[in-house]
Amino acid sequence: MGCCCSFDYDDDWAIDAEICEVCHYPIDPATKPKRPSLNGYELRTPLLAAEEIPPPGSPLQDKLVVAVYDYETTHEGDLPLRTGEQLRILEETGEWWKAQSLTTGQVGNIPCNFVAKLNTLEQEPWFFKALGRKDAERRLLTAGNTHGAFLIRESESTK
């Protein structure tokens, strides 16, 4: 029987048969091609279409942040920050978080408002999350901005 993807296709339909993901016809178990295996593990070639299973996410990826401002230590146990430095958050308590620098390996406390989650808009210098419309207009009209200066903020009307 097979499916239209196999060499011996015919029009017979089997009840409770496995369905081909390509052509949506039933597959006869006797003609189903076997995938090669080695020591009990299925071998796959990179030329076959990828399956729709997302890769597993690392729980450590959720705790990665980037410094958006420099911070000089003021207390014992604080961790100095440099803009763009990546850190792993170890503990979130209030406004001060315990973090480890991925650059230096040092561990210490950091102010939570000096960092943003990695790979988000919050780490971009042109993104102002809680800036109101009037304040945004004032910032854009300051003398230091050149023609074409811009910023992006959250909408006040869709909150």
Automatic annotation (TrEMBL):
Give the SH3 domain ranges.
Answer: 60-120
> Where does this protein come from, organism-wise?
Thamnophis sirtalis
Annotated keywords: SH2 domain, SH3 domain
Q: Which Pfam families match?
A: SH2, SH3_1
Q: Which InterPro entries match?
A: Grb2-like, SH2, SH2_dom_sf, SH3-like_dom_sf, SH3_domain
> What's the name of the protein?
Proto-oncogene tyrosine-protein kinase LCK-like
Q: Where is the SH2 domain?
A: 126-159
Q: Does the keyword Coiled coil apply?
A: no
> PROSITE patterns from the entry?
SH2, SH3
Write down the superkingdom of origin. Answer: Eukaryota
